Structure formats: structure tokens, C-alpha cells
Amino acid sequence: MSAAPLAERLRPTTLDQVIGQQHLLGPGKPLRVAFESGEPHSMILWGPPGVGKTTLARLMADSFAADFIALSAVLSGVKDIREAVERAQLSRGAMGRRTILFVDEVHRFNKSQQDAFLPHVESGLFTFIGATTENPSFEVNGALLSRAAVYVLKSLTEDDLGQLLDRACRDLLDGLQFADDAKTTLVASADGDGRKLLNNLEIVARAAAAKSVVLVDAALLSECLGDALRRFDKGGDTFYDQISALHKSVRGSNPDAALYWLVRMLDGGADPRYLARRLIRMASEDIGLADPRALRLTLDATETYERLGSPEGELALAEAVIYLACAAKSNAVYNAYNAARAFIAKDKSRPVPEHLRNAPTKLMKELGYGKLYRYAHDEPDAFA
After folding, report:
1. Which H or E run contains 366?
2. Which three-class secondary structure state does DSSP give residue 332?
3. What does DSSP assign to residue 367?
4. Are 139 and 107 members of one domain?
5. Is the dihedral of CA 213, 219, 220, 221 positive or negative?
6. Has this prediction a pTM greater than 0.85?
7. Residues 70, 115 within the same domain
8. Domain for residue 182, yes or no?
9. Is residue 42 located within the same domain as residue 146?
10. How distant, in Å, are the alpha carbons of 272, 286, 289 from that of 333?
11. Does residue 134 share a domain with residue 55?
């Protein structure tokens, strides 16, 4: 096998080789039009890992015969940005060649680093392409965002991943074959991430070659990959999408779906303590006074997990999730609290009425503090 990773060797060299993203690359779709326009424009490619962001940036540079400069926001700093600017100036001045500057994980750059691109984007020195797995509305400076089109890339479907697997086996792995169940498992393990699929495939292919195996079955797949058959994006958009799915399944009174998302996240490596805190929030926000026991139950489940740890303590979280999903629902407390906050934000200076004020001193009593207060327990029906 070549020393280059399989994902790199299989990287598309033409737009038609790209698998997936037909909502952007199909006939008449935005990115296809951008490629065919003859004039590249600055853009942000937003999507999960392994869906083709870097590939599209490189193809854009090839399509326009541009100098391609790639930076990683994880590894690069202001010095690297300055060097990229100097290289772009040289390309334009000496060779009359345009430059495409690609910044991977652009959300990792701080505000000042992102600001460094602005004058050069505005002057047209280079076409800026940023790739991010995070929502650019929150992670990319507004000034830079306003100068770039945002394209949302989607996770690859299982059909897309199946095509990618078949292409790799046919073109680069000497026709390696998979049993149906092994192929299904390998595709599912990638969870929409093409790079993950190819990295796992390469591990399996090396093992198959060492054993002179031409048909990979489920046993060999499990032997090679073990627990590395799932991806969990801790702290990224996928993480919050799954939290959202859990919360909405509870709110929608669907215990099966709620339990699925809880176990999916636990299985993928989510912190059970974080999930426990989210369950406490759900008990207050979505069940509230319709079933006050729900809040106590989630607190008990949290304490149980703290005492037992994983995996035994996770059963208490599962019990709490099912209870919350099956409980009566009310968001009256949530709505009332938000209404009170909104009112106070507009009306902060209202003084405490004199009859409700504390009067621990003679002077305060002389000023009338608490004078007209009526003690509710002494009133008919204990209501004043």
C-alpha cells in the first residue's frame, strides 16, 4: 500500500468525482454555479468532519488555476497569515495569478486573527475559503462573514458512503470485498464522515492483506476496529444536535426516542454528568408543576449516578429519561419566569411598596414601613 493515507489517495480531482452534497453541486445548484462562473468568490464551508470541505476548496483552486494556500487555524498564527499575504502579493504581482487562501477550522482563530484577513479579502488579493464544523454565525466575525457566502454541507448518507467504499475497494484496494453485514456495519460506523470511513477501511484492508483475506466478514471487522465503530462530536454541533433530539423527544412524550438518544450519547462518549444536568433542566422547563416529582426524580438520578458511576449509574439516568418522557407536561413555570425577566428588563426602578418593606428599627416604623401589611395567615382563607 502507498504511504499516503487512503483518504488522500482517493481525494477527488474533478467536481464530478465528489460524492454527496448534491444540494450544492447538482446542476444549477449554488456551488456548481460558482465553479462554472469563471469568478471565484469568498465563502465559508460549514459542515461536519469528513464531508468534503477541503476537497472543494482545492478543486476551486484547480478550477481557476489559482495558487492554493492552506492554513490550519489550529497550527497557524499571525506570522503564517502574514507569509500567506506576501505569497499572494508575489503571485499577483510577478505572475498575474490569483490566490485562493483556505483556512481549515477557521473558528479556532480569534477575533484579531480573523480581522487580519479583512483588508485582503476586500482588496481582492485573495479569495478566502474558510472551513468550519461550528456555526459560523457564532464563531466567525460578522465583518468577515458578511464578505463571504455560507454554504452548508451535509453529512454523507449511507448511500454516499457505500459508493465511497465501493470506489475505494475497486480502484485502490485490489477489489477487496465485504460481506453485506460487514459493509453495513462499516458504513454505519462512519456516521456520515467519509474520512472516518476511509480510515477505518484502511485499517481493515491492511489486516485483510496480512491474512490473505479477500472477503471481509463481521468477525474480522470487529477484530480490527473494536470499539472504534462510532463517532461522537463532544462540544461540536453534532453534540448539540443530539442533545436537542433528546430534549425534544422528552418534550414530545416519546420515551422510546428519548431513551434512544440518551443511550446513543452515552455510547458515543458523552459525559453522563452533563446529561444528568440536562435532565434536571428538562424537569423544570417541560414538566414543571404538572408533575413536581419529576424534579426530585432527576436530582435522585443524578445522585445515584454520582454514587455508582458508569455503567451501573447510567440505569438511573435511563429511568429518569423514561419518567420525564411519560410525565404530564407544562411549561407554565418556564413561560412565567421568562415573562417576569422580560418585564423587569423594561421596568427595573420600581420601588418596594412601603407595606411590604422590612421595619426592624424604630425609624423605619416611623416612616411607615410595613404599617399597612396584612398577615395572610390571619385573613379569611389565609389570603390577604
Report:
1. helix 362-366
2. helix
3. T
4. yes
5. positive
6. no
7. yes
8. yes
9. yes
10. 26, 9, 7
11. yes
Which stretches does DSSP call E strand in 236-352? none
CATH number at 248 reads 1.20.272.10
Cell of 105: 477550522
* 308 and 276 within one domain: yes
Distance between CA atoms of 7 and 376, rounded to whole angstroms?
A: 74
User: Do 25 and 138 have their domain in common?
Assistant: yes
Strands 127-132 and 43-46 turn out to be parallel
Q: C-alpha grid cell for residue 59?
A: 478543486
Domain span at residue 147 reads: 21-152
What is the C-alpha to C-alpha distance for residues 121 and 281, in angstroms, rounded to an integer?
A: 44
Placement of cell 467504499 in the chain:
165
Inside any domain, residue 46: yes
Class of residue 131 by CB neighbours under 10 A (exposed 0-12, middle 13-18, buried 19+): buried
Beta strands 127-132 and 99-104, pairing class: parallel
**Consecutive 10-residue averages of pLDDT for the chain (384 residues):** 84 95 95 90 93 95 92 91 94 89 94 92 94 89 93 94 96 92 88 92 94 91 75 61 95 98 88 93 97 98 90 96 98 95 86 87 85 88 81
Instruction: State residue 334's pLDDT score.
Output: 95
**250 and 316 part of one domain:** yes
